[in-house]
């Protein structure tokens, strides 16, 4: 059994302090419970002089003459801003730590979706949220990571995908397959197999990062 949040009031005198001490000792003796002095605090009026506070503190040893309850100051005083600034700073630090860990975890999961597209989690999320393609767009590099049909890599449609129907014979076609690797330009013959609107849009994409990896954005 526990007795919490007990408030004892008295005058700031040595005799009153001794009475309170004796009451606490009697309570401990009769109940078998001990007062937790680490969580006990004496609060004085601002009119009580320092020497009286010290004398009362000697009568009630080990009890703090100031402290906190549930993380908050027991006595606030006149400067509320100064008292609560430390609490605000601790809350901000805790929130920043939570955000950092959550974003870090989200970033790791997103990177797994990119680098491990065939694992169980990636396939489950893809089937649930983006069955017909990708959930991000791609910035073209060498084109080796971008599926021509399923990935978002063109700008002329609201889906950022080509509108030409998928040719099952070339369902795994990569953007790199549409590039003449020897000279680093689009292979016009291959590009012409797409609808004209797709062909024109593809030919307008500059090929100035062929030495770089494709980047999801």
Automatic annotation (TrEMBL):
It comes from Lithospermum erythrorhizon. This is RNA-directed DNA polymerase (Reverse transcriptase). It comes from the Eukaryota.
């Amino acid at each position: 059994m526990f007795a919490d949040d007990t408030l004892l009031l008295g005058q700031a005198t040595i005799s009153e302090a001794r009475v309170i001490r004796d009451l606490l000792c009697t309570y401990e003796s009769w109940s078998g419970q001990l007062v937790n002095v680490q969580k006990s605090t004496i609060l004085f009026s601002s009119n009580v002089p320092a020497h009286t506070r010290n004398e009362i503190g000697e009568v009630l040893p080990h009890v703090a003459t100031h402290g906190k309850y549930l993380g908050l100051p027991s006595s606030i005083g006149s400067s509320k801003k100064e008292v609560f600034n430390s609490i605000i700073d601790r809350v901000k630090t805790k929130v920043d730590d939570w955000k950092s860990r959550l974003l870090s975890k989200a970033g790791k999961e997103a990177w797994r979706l990119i680098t491990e597209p065939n694992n169980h989690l990636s396939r489950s999320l893809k089937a649930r949220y983006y069955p017909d393609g990708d959930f991000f767009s791609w910035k073209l590099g060498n084109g080796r990571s971008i599926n021509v049909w399923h990935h978002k890599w063109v700008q002329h449609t609201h889906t950022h995908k080509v509108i030409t129907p998928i040719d099952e014979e070339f369902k795994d076609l990569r953007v790199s397959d549409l590039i003449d690797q020897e000279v680093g330009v689009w292979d016009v013959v291959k590009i012409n197999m797409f609808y004209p609107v797709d062909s024109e849009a593809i030919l307008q994409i500059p090929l100035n990062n062929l030495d770089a990896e494709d980047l999801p954005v």
